[in-house]
Fold this protein.
Amino acid sequence: MQPTNLQKDKLDLIDKIIHTDDQSKLDFIKSAFNDDTLDYELSIEEKLILEEATTKYYSGEEPSFSWDEVKANARKNYNEKKS
């Protein structure tokens, strides 16, 4: 059996869905439950680009960065474009 709060939350959401006339809200809810995004397939060109980038990464030809370095570089580029 599910906890009472979970059941109440589900029933509250069902009630809101039934009584809404806002199509954008319904579209948002549908997209939250939609698993079609898992069916996305890369084009041949995208696969080749990914394969090339992966090869360069593993060969050491292209540098890799830590998450902190990525954030610092993004901030630096943003500030340079801003001024």
